[in-house]
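URGENT: need a sanity check before tomorrow's submission.

F., can you look over the D-serine deaminase-like pyridoxal phosphate-dependent protein record below? I want to be sure the sequence and structure line up before it goes out.
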Amino acid sequence: MSFLDQISSPTLLIDEKITRANIKRMADKAHSQGKKLVPHWKTAQSHEIGKWAEDYGITEVTASSIKLAEYLCGQGWKNIHIAFPFNIRETKRLDRLAEKQSLSVQIVNPITAKHLADNLTHEVGFFIEIDAGYGRTGVHVSDFGTIEEILRASKKSNHLKFKGFYLHPGHTYYTADKAGIYDQSKDALRMLKTKYQSEFPDLVTRIGDTPGCSVMEDFGDVDELGPGNFVFFDLMQAEMGSCRKEDISVCLAVPVVDINLQRKEILVHGGGVHLAKDVLVDEKGNKNFGEVVLLNEKGWEILKDRSYLKSISQEHGVIKASDSLLQSVKIGDLLGILPIHSCMTADCMGAYLSLDGKWIDHAEGCH
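Structure tokens as predicted:
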């Protein structure tokens, strides 16, 4: 039975071949420069896809929350890093997990460091998150007072172990000058490593963002790479030049429920609860919530004449359709939608259907 025969409502499809190619490409890039790839698993959030990653020498992952870390525990990862400024209300939960799983957290202030030092009963590693220009979170790269206060607090505990510095240059999403941002980021991490390596000879530096890690070829003396979205990619990444549309490895299968030939629109069952509401806006101000692909027995085909979701509500999606698409589709058919932001779409859907008809788990719930 074809995987298409299993679909009656919005369903997130995954192409294992493309996903594996994406993982392998990034793993090869890291390996060629002597870097460790520690992917951010907020995109895939899956045990099964984690097994695929292991085939390419990946032994550690990053989680976006303690909830995701908990889901990933017991799967053989050498370490799971929680890359979010640690929430001290979750200390007991962290301590329980650390009894059986190697974990590390992100610290951005001395209060958190002191709380963990006073309350942990099992070993937990930590990175100090550094802000070198993004401005979302982290200790400013020149704020040595705060860095050293965090380090002093951690030394009062045998259970809180400093691992190094983590930097997420998220502003690569908003500028074409990714090389400039990476030069700034590499300089920041090099300076910190030089300053603190004599006291902490084993410290490592990690940088993580998909746009930069996808296009950059020289990561200097950074030790570890931690991108996440590269596992699936999406239209936002394609727009920024991180990938081709052919590299996007997930798409949302949606049923056609109505066709309006006068308006050249197709109504589908697929909306904000399936795709989230991330949007791209073109130079004319047109909103794009996802682009249409044609589904077939082998996966999907990118259309020569572009059709796209012009609007979405909770369950509805309205496609602005090309003439060729209108001529080929009928009510009851399935269309595919390449997501704007694959991480959010996967989170909304909570499971994947592979092209060989198997359900693949996701932390938010599986079939």
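My own read: The first helix runs from residue 16 to 32. Residues 33-231 form a domain with the TIM Barrel fold (CATH 3.20.20.10). If you see anything odd, call me.
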